[in-house]
Amino acid sequence: TWSVGAWCDYWLSAKRRAVAESTYRFYERHIGYALPHIGRTLLYELSPDHIRATLEALSPLSPQSVKHVRTVLTMAFKLAADEGVIARNPCATVAAPLVKKYEAYALADAELDALFVAVAGTRLEPLWHLLADYGMRLNELLSCRWLDYNEQTQKLRIRATKTDTERHLTLTPAHVERLAAWKAALVDERADNPRWREQGYLFPSEVGTKLLQSNVR
After folding, report:
1. Cα separations in angstroms, 202 against 119, 140, 184, 198
2. Are 189 and 206 in contact (CB under 8 A)?
3. Burial letters for 158-182: b for 16+ Cβ neighbours within 10 Å, e otherwise?
4. Alpha-carbon gap, residue 213 to 217, rounded angstroms
5. Do 109 and 188 contact (CB within 8 A), yes or no?
6. Could you give the CA distance from residue 122 to residue 186 in angstroms, rounded to a whole number?
7. pTM attached to this predicted model
8. Minimal CB count within 10 Å: which of 14, 41, 84, 216?
9. What is the mean pLDDT of each run of 10 residues along the chain (217 residues)?
10. Count of CB atoms situated within 10 Å of the CB of 11
11. Are the beta carbons of 94 and 47 closer than 8 angstroms?
12. Phi/psi of residue 2, each to 5°?
């Protein structure tokens, strides 16, 4: 009697208690891409062809996003197979989309100038300047809290998310000035927002929680 949509809701409800909020939102978002195509299908009738057709229908998304959809669906249907709700995982024989390896490059001076013009006056302007000048990973900066910033020494502690190490960046006067203005702006955001949930992040969302990388991009 399970529909795909009902099963995915059940799986997500279990994951909400088991994973970080950002991970849960990742699961929720990518399942949301698939449900318009297979959500009403009965779970026991779901076949690899349904999965292939869904991934094909999602081709306007990036190959990486489509690959993520398959990965999350595979996890959800694995639980169904493990619990005996279905005989086998319909994603098991469906090949993942090919994703070209991303080759990073440094922005030229003219590109940096264009970036800074584009973000001037926006909410996250200080974030873009820090990323451009110091080269930390996006999630490293999004994980920073005000406790990691020493206003006296003007140093910012970066806790590497992949290597479990930390380093300290000495900020320029321009960055110190931007952070001071940003800190004052956050005071106003908190005061005018009853939904604010203070968690101490240096660059929080508009309700005080950790910003998702995908939202920043």
Report:
1. 18, 11, 12, 11
2. yes
3. beeeeeeeeeebebeeebeebbeeb
4. 6
5. no
6. 13
7. 0.56
8. 84
9. 96 92 92 96 96 95 93 97 95 90 84 94 94 90 95 91 80 95 93 91 94 87
10. 20
11. no
12. -70, 130
154: tokens are 């003007």
Beta bridge partners of 155: 150, 170
DSSP state letters, the chain: --BHHHHHHHHHHHHHTTS-HHHHHHHHHHHHHHHHHHTTSBGGG--HHHHHHHHHHTTTS-HHHHHHHHHHHHHHHHHHHHTTSSSS-TTTTSPPPP-PPP---PPPHHHHHHHHHHHTTSTTHHHHHHHHHH---HHHHHT-BGGGEETTTTEEEEE-TTTS-EEEEEPPHHHHHHHHHHHHHHHHHHHT-TT-----BSSB-TTSSBPPHHHH-
Counted residue by residue, the chain has a size of: 217
